[in-house]
Amino acid sequence: MRIYNVQIAFNFLHIMNPHFLNKRLSHLLGFAGLIPFVLLLLGTCLADPLWIAAFVRGQLAYGMVILSFLGGIHWGAAMLCADLSLKHTKQALIWGVIPSLIAWTATLLEGFGFALLMAGFIVAWQVDKALYKHYGMPEWLLTLRTLLTTAVVLLLAATVAGANLRG
Do 129 and 115 touch, CB atoms closer than 8 A? Predict the structure, then answer.
């Protein structure tokens, strides 16, 4: 009986708002994606000084992966949005590979890699604000992106500050 009631409630919520599950799960996974950034920052600030470089490299590597993922969203949108104009399709496909190139370049710049990575996140957020509307993305997704981008940039900056204060 109880399982049946839960299923009815879920079906009701799904009928009322088809994006309920997507929104909730996207928020949950998006904020969970901040956990490695926080843990690596804590490691940089609290671990034995001999480990600082490893935590800094880990933070840079994780940031690179996430920035590359943000570009991939545009590639996928270009492939799936049947109503996307030729202009916006080209923009999406071209932009879709740029974040991974920014991330890769960050590995070549030693101390400036974090600055490039932070700039890459900010530019990706700006591009998302311009292109998401053409993909038919829900408005709440840009709000989520704003929150996550702000957190990531602050966590990356704090990692650099923490490493420099301890190093």
Answer: no
pLDDT at 1 over 60: no
Per-residue pLDDT reduced to its tens digit, 77-115: 999 888 999 999 999 999 999 999 999 999 898 779 999
Angular region, 81: left φ>0, alpha ψ -120 to 50, beta rest: beta
- Supply φ then ψ for residue 120, to 5 degrees: -60, -40
Does residue 20 register a pLDDT over 70?
no
Per the structure, the complete domain to which residue 68 belongs is given by 19-166
Q: Is residue 118 part of a domain?
A: yes
Report yes or no on 5 lying in a domain.
no
Q: Map 112-128 to HEC letters.
A: HHHHHHHHHHHHHHHHH
Nearest Cα neighbor of 133 from 66, 76, 81, 69 is 81
Domain count, the chain: 1
Asked whether residue 116 is domain-assigned, the answer is yes
Q: Is the Cβ–Cβ distance between 108 and 162 less than 8 Å?
A: no
User: Is 3 part of any domain?
Assistant: no
Q: Is the pLDDT of residue 13 over 80?
A: no
DSSP assigned state of 39: H
